[in-house]
């Protein structure tokens, strides 16, 4: 049923455009995942369906935000787009994308976009987005998305103490999110506390795959940043927890990303 809903939404998205056509890179990152504009349009269409199903009057259906206001509310910055480009590069260097005819063209395009977005990240000071980030966190104090996104942006700007503060808030709001634990661990490592970073990932739990994955991810990001002693702390612990997995130290190193 979810696949049918997805297909129906795509048809509606095509019909909602100024001229009928199949949605492409204007609304999609690939053949499945929506980009920012696609997610925004899909959200509007889903909201209309929900309102109709609940028989809500027009004045009870909320306000449709303009793209710029929507981006500000979500603290959607060039760093957010950079992270999206990085995730697409990771997809295109692995199956099933790796075997597609257009793979190399798409991969080159995403790498160009990633480089352009990093230039934008470097050009903009944190204060350009700080007010919007603080407003979003104040409006949604229990949400982990906003402190996580803001903390990642601060990491990219080398503001490690402030990044650690907001990433700790994100982990507190969503302790089950191991990706956020890993980001907090990276911030701790940049502050010269890699062992504390390891503790942030493991907590009181017995080792399992997600913990090993998070340790490797933190180690990989530190390797990319040239912080080799700190990276070794995480990778050694991962190898202790998964000694029978020869790929554990290389799982996420096929496509390095210059994040810092």
- The SS-based structural class is mainly alpha
* Number of discrete helical segments: 12
Number of strands: 0
Low-confidence stretches: 252-260
Give the topology string: H per helix, E per strand.
Answer: HHHHHHHHHHHH
Portion of residues in helices? 55-70%
Q: Biggest sheet, in brief?
A: none
**Overall pLDDT:** 86
Roughly how many Å is the radius of gyration? 20 Å
End-to-end span in angstroms? Answer: 41 Å
Portion in beta strands = under 5%
The best one-word shape is globular
Care to give the gist of this entry?
This protein has helices spanning 2-16, 36-53, 67-73, 78-92, 103-123, 127-139, 145-156, 160-173, 178-190, 194-202, 209-224, 228-241. It has 260 residues and is an all-alpha fold.
Please describe what this structure looks like.
- Mean pLDDT is 86; it is low at 252-260.
- This protein has 260 residues and is mainly alpha-helical.
- The protein is 64% helix and 0% strand.
- The longest helix has 21 residues, at 103-123.
- It contains twelve helices and no strands.
- α8 (160-173) packs antiparallel against α9 (178-190).
- The protein is globular and about 55 Å long.
Helix-strand blueprint:
Elements: H1 2-16, H2 36-53, H3 67-73, H4 78-92, H5 103-123, H6 127-139, H7 145-156, H8 160-173, H9 178-190, H10 194-202, H11 209-224, H12 228-241
Structural descriptors:
260 residues; globular; disordered C terminus; mainly alpha; 0% strand
């Amino acid at each position: 049923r979810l696949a049918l809903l997805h297909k129906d939404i795509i048809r509606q998205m095509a019909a909602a455009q100024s001229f009928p056509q199949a949605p492409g890179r204007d609304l999609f990152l690939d053949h499945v995942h929506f980009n920012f504009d696609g997610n925004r349009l899909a959200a509007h269409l889903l909201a209309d369906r929900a309102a109709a199903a609940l028989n809500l009057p027009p004045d009870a259906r909320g306000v449709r935000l303009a793209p710029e206001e929507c981006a500000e509310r979500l603290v959607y910055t060039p760093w957010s787009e950079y992270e999206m480009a990085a995730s697409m590069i990771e997809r295109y260097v692995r199956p099933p994308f790796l075997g597609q005819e257009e793979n190399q063209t798409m991969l080159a395009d995403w790498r160009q976009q990633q480089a352009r977005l990093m230039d934008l990240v470097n050009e903009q000071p944190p204060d350009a987005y700080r007010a919007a980030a603080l407003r979003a966190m104040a409006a949604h104090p229990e949400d982990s998305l906003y402190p996580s996104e803001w903390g990642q942006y601060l990491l990219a700007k080398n503001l490690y103490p402030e990044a650690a503060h907001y990433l700790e808030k994100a982990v507190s709001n969503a302790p089950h999110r191991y990706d956020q634990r890993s980001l907090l661990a990276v911030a701790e490592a940049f502050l010269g506390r890699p062992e504390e970073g390891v503790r942030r990932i493991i907590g009181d739990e017995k080792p399992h795959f997600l913990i090993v994955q998070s340790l490797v991810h933190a180690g990989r990001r530190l390797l990319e940043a040239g912080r080799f002693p700190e990276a070794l702390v995480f990778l050694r612990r991962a190898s202790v927890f998964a000694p029978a997995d020869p790929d554990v130290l290389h799982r996420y190193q096929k496509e390095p990303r210059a994040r810092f």
